[in-house]
Structures are given as structure tokens and as C-alpha cells.
Known about the structure:
The chain is 23% helix and 35% strand.
Amino acid sequence: MPSEKKLKAKNITVGFEIPALVKESLTIQDLVEWCGVENDYLNIHYDKVAAQKEGLPDCLVQGTYKLCLLGRMITDWLGESGNLISISVRYTGMDFPGSTLTCRGKINSITNQKDSRIFNLVIWVVNEKGDKTAEGKASILIK
């Protein structure tokens, strides 16, 4: 949910953890809908038999779905207070239907500009088992 209050750049310090975003119990419907968003219907994302033929235990959650959740976590927190400048993610593990994904982020450096600040974040996704299945970085600008 977007922030109700305008964020103040001066109040955000290195080590600050942004509010987590939790997506509980992913469903096949979630994966099918994401296929539609991307216009990428690779069947291992919605057909368990096809996934098992490829050696997977179940349908595979798309990496880009996790990237989208991380972006949403950041923009929900920012609200109208700033802009997401860049985001990149490396996928480090697989998730399947039924997974609960928790997105987290923390400020790891700050660059002062003339009339704004750029905050660099480390971001990651952890599943219900505690496995980190995506990790990356993002930069945001807050005036």
C-alpha cells in the first residue's frame, strides 16, 4: 500500500529497512496471469506435467514475477515521494506454487545531489523456507 506520508530524505539513513512486501501462497492462477502480462507462455510456469518433464517438482515461478514484486515493494514505500531509478536482480533459487515470498530491502549508501538524494538499496526475496531466491540492487531518488 502506498505511503500515506511524504518521505523525508533527511530521515532516511544507511541501514534503514524499507517495509517488506509479502505475497502469500502463490497460485497457478498468479503464474498464468503473469504469463499474460509478459506475453510469455512457457508451459513450465503453468503446466505441472510439462514442468516435471523438465525435471522440476512443480510449475516454476517466473523470475520476472519476483522482480516485479521487488519493484512494487519499493514504489509502494516511496509513494509520491520519489522515483525508482534502476533495479536489477539475480535469481538464486526456484519457487513453486504454494510459496510465500517476502521481499525486503535496505539502504546501503546515499549520494547527496544539489536538491535531492539518491539512495542505493540491497533487495532480496526470501521464501517460506527462509531461502533467498532473488537478490539485487536498486536506486531511488527522493527530493
